[in-house]
Amino acid sequence: MSYVTAICGVAFALCLVSPAAAQEYVELTGGFGPESHNVTAYAGGDIDGSSIATTCAGMVGETPQVTLSFTAYGGPLVISAYSEMDTSLVVQAPNGRWYCNDDTDGLNPRVNWNTAQSGTYRIHVGAVGDAAQGVPVVVAFME
């Protein structure tokens, strides 16, 4: 009987893991075309984005929801987030600088570089307001 109780307890604990803790890893090379490459992430976290950089908004997680490994070709890179709720983007570029955006396209954020760098982009999707915590967000990569 205690064996069954232990299994049920572990299963219940696994159900409590926040979807915001889930991470996506994307690997792209510049010139990937006019179509966007999309992944699903979940907005939110316990850290105020403005504590990372004063221009950042929303509550973000300690670890990025999406990590992009990008091989540049000298062209642009655009990272957007689309959701039914108000979200933000807090992105650490390969040079270590933070880039943030909130509400470029309605309530949807977008960060873009005219000449993107090769390297790792760490992407935090912020929840702006309590209602946005944990909502699914489509993170789109475009050129």
UniProtKB/TrEMBL annotation:
Which Gene3D superfamilies does this one have? 2.60.120.380
UniProt keywords, alphabetically: Signal
Secretion signal span: 1-22
Domain of life, per the record? Answer: Bacteria
Q: What is this protein called?
A: Peptidase S1 and S6, chymotrypsin/Hap
Q: Which organism is it from?
A: Brevundimonas subvibrioides (strain ATCC 15264 / DSM 4735 / LMG 14903 / NBRC 16000 / CB 81)
